[in-house]
Amino acid sequence: MNYRNRVKSFLKKPHNIILITLAFILAYLTVVPMITIILDTFTVHQSELMRVKGARVGDFTLYHWTKVLFSSASKKVFYQPFLNTMLVSFGTCFIAISFGGIVAWLVTRTNMRYKGIISTLFIFPYIMPSWTLAMAWLNFFKNSLVGGSTGFFTALTGIQTANWFAYGPFPIVIVLGLHYAPFAYILIGGILRNMDANLEEAALILKASRSKIMRKITIPIVMPAMLSTFLLVFSSAMSAFAVPAFLGTSVRFQVLTTQMYRTLNGLNPGYGYIMALIMISIGVLILGVNQWIIGKRKSFTTITGKSSNIAFINLRAFKSIISALLLVIVTLVCIVPLISFAIESFIMEPGNYSLDNFTTVFWVGQGSPEIANGEPGVLRNPAIYHGLWNSVRLSVLVAFIAGSTGILAGYAIVKKRNSRLSMLVNNLAFFPYLMPSMAFGAIYLSMFAVRRGFIPPLYGTFALLVLVGAVKYLPFASRASVGAMHQLSNEIEEAGTIQGIGWWKRMIRIIIPIQKASFLSGYLLPFISSMRELSLFILLVTPSTRILTTMLFQYNEKGWNQYANAINLIIVLFVVASNVIVNRVTGASIDKGIGGQ
Amino acid sequence: MPEIRLQNITKRFGKSVAVDNLSLVIRDREFVTLLGPSGCGKTTTLRMIAGLETPTDGEIYIDDTCVFSAEHGIDISPDKRNVGFLFQNYALWPHMTVYKNISFGLENLKWEHARITARVDELLSMLRISELRDRYPAELSGGQQQRVAIARTLATGPKILFMDEPLSNLDAKLRMDMRAELKRLHVETDSTFVYVTHDQLEAMTLSTKICLLQEGVLQQFAPPLETYHNPSNYFVADFVGSPNINMLEVTGENVNLDEVRLTSNGLRFLFVPTSSSITVQEGQEFLLGIRPEDIVISPEGNIEGSIYSTLPSGMETIVKIQTENHLLTSVVFGGVDFSMGEAVRIGFKSEHNVLFDRKSERNLATGKLL
């Protein structure tokens, strides 16, 4: 074949066209921002003119790097927050993986009771916005030492909670750990469910003790997947913003993300970009380590087999205790926070839980000048409805774009697997996952503030929110779709091709219907994620494009606690309800989206 | 002497009964296959003897020790039953080398290091896989994995070996080789084998006794040739043997003391029981089983037919013959072939034709056809 014919036959295949197109678009939307960030760390910005002497906007400077890394202020600006971030991330991983892992093991391998309800409820903290638990924590444990009213705990017992208990690293780690435990549960549970029980039985027959089987067989075999889980949780925890912001700010506990918010929003965007860059580098390093582990020699290709005949481990005397205990914990984590939001949103004077202090003014009140600058109750507040409408609109659009692109990406990546182009697109589609949301928002802000080719300046537009959300959540959709496509044998499509069925029809009538549930999960996860997302959008919203989550954050910053709780309740109920409805109607689920089975 | 005794073993999964009131005695050094279609409870039975599954009811004895009793609440765990188990998918530990896979069981027995090394090397050379010593399972072919799994099971020298369809993941040629090796191993290791398979040929060729199960109920427990020639019921006759036994619906009448006249849609036979005498009521309905190799194609035959199809394999030819109202299968040994539609005559030669009761499907008698 000559050169022209080769190009022609290459372009005849739809998956090649998809790959090429995606490679260009994604390179533009991920690599260019990356370069923008790097350049930004060497550039003087408007707000920095005062500090960098004699410079003009856009000048090259090493000021940011020397200040962040090698000055007397570095410790406070960068090193301490960096260490705090590491502390929070490792602590979160520890809690998430041990808690999620234990529950996964109990559900898949033992004869525990209430498995159905526990596994349903256990996912909730991941569906709910991450700060939900943080707010609940404050509702329960806040003390008067840092200012303001006290929580239920103090109200009920009269004991003042210690500062370290109420604020700072301890509650942050607990809350993030609980938030990401379902994530670990889904991933580890998937592995355990897929792991051939015969592997353990073979060891049992050869007279290995239960603990030796655990140490020498089960844990080593699930270890690579555990490490992947660890790395994914680690990078998520690292880029968490809302929880440290809620629980850490009052005691000046700063992590990289909160520090980034301060600097990007304040006088030193250059600092912020350096932190973003460092976080992205850690993310890339994590991805590299992850792929290195998966690609190792003793890769576990043999972890498939019929494990239908698993004999559940008998917990014997502990059965009832463990089952009941877990049910209580899960209820505490899932249901009780919601009740606390409801209660807090009905209370007139914070900290006073007596019955005559209850009021509906924050829900249906007209708004009076004495309370919160005359802000009407949330159910009569047009601003809230506007924010809700924006949130829903945004999430639907993001889900539609990310989900559809994800299906195409997954299809093309798997179709052309092992080719360099496919690997490139696969990595590009996953890359946004590693970018801390806040940094991602910041880059898009600076990148699309001006006209880019045929793209008009997008600052302040709704389109910018949609764009940033769609790119950020593409990894969820593409992962779900790659997984779904891997399960589909190529012959299924070829059988259609042979009969002369066109590509569109093959996709819509054959491929998509077969893996409907997995593909829909690829829509569900971006939808839920953007419904509850704060840090990605917080730098990009303007009054007209405000969404519920950013409004919640603003109310909270102003100290209008009741409004914040009410909005939070609305968000949580909305997200949980839409998840349940989608799950019931279509069979799509969060687990499938993340990659559990 | 290890003897395995199952008494009234029943296993229920929820409402469905996997194994129904099974009693069985497996004697020392036997090679017993649990045979049956998928879902008949054979794997469950094996796993219950090994202790991997808990019976709902009944008692199991190994070597005269009660290892399970529902009544007395005894349930000895698998590691204390001194058995070996070979899994269908081999269950090799992916994170251990071949050497580590084999030595694992010996380490659990707290053997000295030098002794372990010697024993593993002995097994490696016995199964001709010495060069694979330091590889990981993912780097082995199916046949090699199979050998490693056998070595791992044999390492601790168990006197009882359980195998769950160990050859089903191998290709046809390898399977033939491994069958021969398993049979040698059985003699060399001097131990009792209990073997699960759905492949009747495997059961026929390997075992000293076949235990045939259907829907959890024992159908027959007998040596292979006995099962073949004197199947206890219609199911056994139909399940064992390839190509399948010819089964004719016949009606019978007594002719004289030990002869029965059988008629089937135009065919007439005289059945002479050789096992035991039977009495027949006028017009009683039967099933008559005739093995394919007992139908002879020869000019002296008294039934006319024509060749419907032929499948020559070199060693033998499987022929389907269309008679007036029946389609019969016959096997002709040697490299002969026929052309389709060719007119032939057939006759019957054996004493092992079986007469089953139409209703109960039980074996009533075996005998000659005249």
Primary descriptors:
heterodimer, A: 597 residues, mainly alpha, MetI-like fold, globular, B: 370 residues, alpha+beta, OB fold (Dihydrolipoamide Acetyltransferase, E2P), 2 domains, six-stranded antiparallel barrel, 8 helices, 22 strands, 23% helix
Q: How does the SSE layout of this entry go?
A:
The complex is a heterodimer of chains A (597) and B (370).
Chain A: H1 3-12, H2 14-40, H3 63-70, H4 74-109, H5 115-127, H6 131-141, H7 152-157, H8 163-166, H9 169-194, H10 197-205, H11 210-238, H12 242-248, H13 256-265, H14 269-294, H15 318-334, H16 336-345, H17 361-364, H18 382-415, H19 420-434, H20 437-447, H21 462-486, H22 490-498, H23 503-514, H24 516-531, H25 548-558, H26 561-586, H27 590-594
Helix pairs in contact in A: 2-14, 2-18, 2-19, 2-20, 3-4, 4-9, 4-11, 5-9, 5-15, 6-9, 6-12, 6-16, 9-11, 9-12, 10-11, 11-14, 13-14, 14-20, 16-26, 18-19, 18-21, 18-24, 19-21, 21-24, 22-23, 24-26, 25-26
Chain B: E1 4-13, E2 16-26, E3 31-35, H1 42-50, E4 57-62, E5 65-69, E6 74-75, E7 83-86, H2 98-108, H3 113-126, H4 142-155, E8 160-164, H5 172-189, E9 192-197, H6 200-206, E10 209-214, E11 217-222, H7 224-229, H8 234-239, E12 246-256, E13 259-264, E14 267-273, E15 284-290, E16 295-297, E17 303-312, E18 316-322, E19 327-333, E20 343-348, E21 353-357, E22 363-369
Parallel strand pairs in B: 3-9, 3-10, 7-8, 8-9
Antiparallel strand pairs in B: 1-2, 1-4, 4-5, 5-6, 10-11, 12-13, 12-15, 13-14, 14-22, 15-21, 16-20, 17-18, 17-20, 18-19, 21-22
Helix pairs in contact in B: 2-3, 2-4, 3-4
